[in-house]
Design a protein that fits this description.
single chain; mainly alpha; three-stranded antiparallel beta sheet; 7 helices; 65% helix; extended
């Protein structure tokens, strides 16, 4: 029996694939992640192909992408020479790994470019003042975001959970925050 035989598993896998496209992730990559996350046993690539009906090359590429994010790892199963795969089961760990990889791929290069632009614009007297101001503002914002992430990612998991559960209520601990 395949996980896709259960309608709720199928609904989750299809939805996760659809959501992946909204997050900039290939649908197949997201569906494979969902399948591995739901599976109670490691799966080899051929089994993933069978279950999801994807091309073998597509599965191989997707698994490499998921491994690059650190949310899927290769495991060995006794008596079977094939590589099997499992998804990270700790949702907080998965979130932190995805955030780290997205920061590395998206935020860090943006900060580097903005740093270059800000430096050039600081010496370019012919540049319109609004251009200089907006680039500097964006640079400051992205650096603040990167610094915030670097500080938050090292907090212990229980602290992160508490912060998330507090939500906006955390503001009441800040100086000058209005009391409700």
């Amino acid at each position: 029996m395949s996980l896709l035989d259960h309608p709720d598993a199928k609904a989750f896998i299809l939805h996760w694939g659809e959501m992946g496209t909204h997050w900039g992730v290939n649908r197949s990559v997201s569906q494979i992640h969902a399948l591995l996350y739901l599976s109670d046993t490691p799966l080899h690539a051929e089994r993933i192909v069978e279950i999801l009906g994807l091309a073998r090359s597509n599965v191989s590429t997707a698994i490499k992408e998921l491994q690059a994010y650190g949310i899927v790892r290769r495991v060995h199963v006794d008596g079977d020479r094939r590589d099997h795969f499992v998804a990270e089961g700790d949702l907080w760990e998965m979130l932190m790994r995805i955030a780290a990889e997205r920061k590395r791929r998206e935020i860090d290069p943006t900060i580097a470019l903005l740093s270059e632009l800000a430096e050039r614009l600081a010496h370019d007297k012919s540049a319109p003042s609004h251009l200089r101001w907006r680039i500097l503002r964006m640079h400051d914002f992205m650096q603040t975001l990167g610094t915030w992430y670097d500080q938050v990612r090292v907090l212990p998991k229980p602290t992160l959970v508490t912060l998330m559960k507090l939500g906006g209520k955390v503001a009441r601990f800040l100086p000058g925050a209005p009391r409700s």
